[in-house]
């Protein structure tokens, strides 16, 4: 098994990565756990819940399953309440454990529920999408959306472990694999040029889910995210680089309506726009902008933004959590493999990028 450690001010935990991990989930349940809620959706449950339940049989604890409605459009306060209703009706207490079994939507909602139920109970992440395995399950950002902005209601709250079984990726739709690859290449762009070049050279193996390449790439992504989060758990400074492409991307998601574009697709397109802005403001080489565009094309993510009213787009970017004093703060690349946060006040440049990057 491959293990990556996450060591933050608030806690220290392992990311366990292997083929067949689901069968061994019982090993990660704390001994004093009183009851367990597996939070998932019908798609994932119908394929994999029996494996988990059979592994958990050996620990003889009461288990309930809570199936949430599926999709980004349900990542909201209403869905959160479904969890609380079930926990209270089943007498869940402070030693109860939540298991987030699904993609980033399930992980973000469950983490938030765990952080506020009885002022905080333990939870485990079992991410089942590529995106969740390399990004959302790690680092403790939890949230639900608000109609006016992505992830606006949430907390920083770490899981007690992350359990990654790469076998579940075999049932993941190709479009979701592509969305996950977008967040994966992000790490190379912001912090690790070698990893970027490795991804460029092995992208076909990753798209085809070759096991050895997948394990290497998932592990490296988790190491990079762990490194950043361990230095700056609550996004006071460095952690904001993980938001590369998200200023544009989150605006696409919220203005179009949650769920129309996948999060990873919006980030992919947002990374091209952020690369264009980097070229304008920091002189990122044009050849590097084209390299990024062609990588995003190769992973089958959109390279052009949808038609969005520019005013609505700007308005959505103005509510981004990274902003201060009314200025939009972007993550920009001086070169591939390094990133900085910069406030951009020149509205003309932003407008031009929005207009020229649209379908
Ligand atoms: N907390 C963080 O740090 C962080 C980081 C990145 C993204 N996010 C959030 O994550 C969310 C996106 O997550 P996502 O891309 O995992 O999407 P998702 O959670 O919506 O899952 C995608 C779809 O795949 C299905 N699915 C999941 N696993 C499957 C499997 N193994 N086989 C078949 N189908 C499967 C799901 O039911 C769902 O329909 C967004 O809300 C985004 O904001 C959070
Ligand atoms: O972990 C982080 O920090 C990230 O920014 C990772 C992003 O990929 C992720 O989409 C995150 O949820 C965005 O956070 P937000 O604070 O911009 O809502
Ligand atoms: Zn993201």
Automatic annotation (TrEMBL):
<dbReference type="GO" id="GO:0008652">
    <property type="term" value="P:amino acid biosynthetic process"/>
</dbReference>
<feature type="binding site">
    <location>
        <begin position="104"/>
        <end position="108"/>
    </location>
    <ligand>
        <name>NAD(+)</name>
    </ligand>
</feature>
<keyword id="KW-0028">Amino-acid biosynthesis</keyword>
<dbReference type="GO" id="GO:0003856">
    <property type="term" value="F:3-dehydroquinate synthase activity"/>
</dbReference>
<keyword id="KW-0472">Membrane</keyword>
<keyword id="KW-0547">Nucleotide-binding</keyword>
<feature type="domain" description="3-dehydroquinate synthase C-terminal">
    <location>
        <begin position="180"/>
        <end position="323"/>
    </location>
</feature>
<dbReference type="Pfam" id="PF24621">
    <property type="entry name" value="DHQS_C"/>
</dbReference>
<feature type="binding site">
    <location>
        <position position="150"/>
    </location>
    <ligand>
        <name>NAD(+)</name>
    </ligand>
</feature>
<comment type="function">
    <text>Catalyzes the conversion of 3-deoxy-D-arabino-heptulosonate 7-phosphate (DAHP) to dehydroquinate (DHQ).</text>
</comment>
<keyword id="KW-0520">NAD</keyword>
<keyword id="KW-0456">Lyase</keyword>
<comment type="pathway">
    <text>Metabolic intermediate biosynthesis; chorismate biosynthesis; chorismate from D-erythrose 4-phosphate and phosphoenolpyruvate: step 2/7.</text>
</comment>
<dbReference type="GO" id="GO:0009423">
    <property type="term" value="P:chorismate biosynthetic process"/>
</dbReference>
<feature type="transmembrane region" description="Helical">
    <location>
        <begin position="97"/>
        <end position="118"/>
    </location>
</feature>
<keyword id="KW-0479">Metal-binding</keyword>
<dbReference type="GO" id="GO:0009073">
    <property type="term" value="P:aromatic amino acid family biosynthetic process"/>
</dbReference>
<comment type="similarity">
    <text>Belongs to the sugar phosphate cyclases superfamily. Dehydroquinate synthase family.</text>
</comment>
<dbReference type="InterPro" id="IPR016037">
    <property type="entry name" value="DHQ_synth_AroB"/>
</dbReference>
<keyword id="KW-0963">Cytoplasm</keyword>
<keyword id="KW-1133">Transmembrane helix</keyword>
<protein>
    <recommendedName>
        <fullName>3-dehydroquinate synthase</fullName>
        <ecNumber>4.2.3.4</ecNumber>
    </recommendedName>
</protein>
<keyword id="KW-0057">Aromatic amino acid biosynthesis</keyword>
<feature type="binding site">
    <location>
        <begin position="128"/>
        <end position="129"/>
    </location>
    <ligand>
        <name>NAD(+)</name>
    </ligand>
</feature>
<dbReference type="InterPro" id="IPR030963">
    <property type="entry name" value="DHQ_synth_fam"/>
</dbReference>
<feature type="binding site">
    <location>
        <position position="183"/>
    </location>
    <ligand>
        <name>Zn(2+)</name>
    </ligand>
</feature>
<dbReference type="InterPro" id="IPR030960">
    <property type="entry name" value="DHQS/DOIS_N"/>
</dbReference>
<dbReference type="GO" id="GO:0046872">
    <property type="term" value="F:metal ion binding"/>
</dbReference>
<dbReference type="GO" id="GO:0005737">
    <property type="term" value="C:cytoplasm"/>
</dbReference>
<dbReference type="InterPro" id="IPR050071">
    <property type="entry name" value="Dehydroquinate_synthase"/>
</dbReference>
<keyword id="KW-0812">Transmembrane</keyword>
<feature type="binding site">
    <location>
        <position position="246"/>
    </location>
    <ligand>
        <name>Zn(2+)</name>
    </ligand>
</feature>
<keyword id="KW-0170">Cobalt</keyword>
<keyword id="KW-0862">Zinc</keyword>
<feature type="domain" description="3-dehydroquinate synthase N-terminal">
    <location>
        <begin position="66"/>
        <end position="178"/>
    </location>
</feature>
<dbReference type="InterPro" id="IPR056179">
    <property type="entry name" value="DHQS_C"/>
</dbReference>
<feature type="binding site">
    <location>
        <position position="141"/>
    </location>
    <ligand>
        <name>NAD(+)</name>
    </ligand>
</feature>
<feature type="binding site">
    <location>
        <begin position="70"/>
        <end position="75"/>
    </location>
    <ligand>
        <name>NAD(+)</name>
    </ligand>
</feature>
<dbReference type="GO" id="GO:0000166">
    <property type="term" value="F:nucleotide binding"/>
</dbReference>
<feature type="binding site">
    <location>
        <position position="263"/>
    </location>
    <ligand>
        <name>Zn(2+)</name>
    </ligand>
</feature>
<dbReference type="Pfam" id="PF01761">
    <property type="entry name" value="DHQ_synthase"/>
</dbReference>
């Amino acid at each position: 098994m491959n293990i990556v450690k996450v060591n933050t001010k608030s806690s220290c935990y392992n990311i366990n990565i292997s083929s067949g991990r689901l069968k061994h989930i019982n090993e990660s349940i704390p001994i004093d756990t009183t009851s367990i809620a597996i939070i998932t959706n019908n798609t994932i449950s119908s394929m994999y819940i029996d494996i988990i339940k059979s592994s958990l049989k050996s620990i003889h604890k009461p288990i309930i399953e809570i199936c949430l409605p599926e999709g980004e459009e349900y990542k909201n306060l209403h869905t959160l309440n479904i969890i609380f209703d079930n926990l209270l009706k089943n007498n869940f207490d402070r030693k109860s454990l939540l298991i987030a079994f699904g993609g980033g939507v399930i992980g973000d909602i469950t983490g938030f529920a765990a952080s506020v139920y009885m002022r905080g109970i333990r939870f485990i992440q079992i991410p089942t999408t590529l995106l969740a395995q390399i990004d959302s399950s790690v680092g403790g950002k939890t949230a639900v959306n608000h109609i006016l902005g992505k992830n606006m209601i949430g907390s920083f709250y770490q899981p007690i472990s992350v359990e990654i079984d790469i076998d579940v990726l075999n049932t993941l739709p190709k479009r979701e694999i592509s969305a996950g690859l977008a967040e994966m290449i992000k790490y190379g762009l912001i912090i690790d040029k070698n990893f970027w070049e490795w991804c460029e050279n092995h992208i076909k193996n990753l798209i085809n889910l070759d096991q050895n390449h997948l394990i290497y790439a998932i592990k490296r992504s988790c190491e990079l995210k762990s490194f950043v989060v361990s230095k700056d758990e609550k996004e006071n400074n460095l952690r904001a680089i993980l938001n590369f492409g998200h200023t544009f991307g989150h605006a696409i998601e919220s203005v179009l309506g949650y769920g129309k574009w996948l999060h990873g697709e919006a980030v992919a397109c947002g990374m091209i726009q952020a690369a264009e802005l980097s070229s304008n403001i920091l002189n990122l080489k044009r050849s590097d902008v084209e390299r990024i565009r062609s990588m995003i094309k190769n992973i089958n993510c959109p390279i052009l933004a949808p038609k969005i009213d520019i005013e609505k787009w700007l308005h959505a970017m103005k509510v981004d959590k990274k902003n201060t004093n009314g200025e939009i703060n972007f993550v920009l690349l001086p070169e591939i493999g390094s990133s900085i946060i910069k406030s951009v006040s020149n509205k003309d440049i932003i407008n031009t990028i929005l207009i020229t990057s649209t379908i």
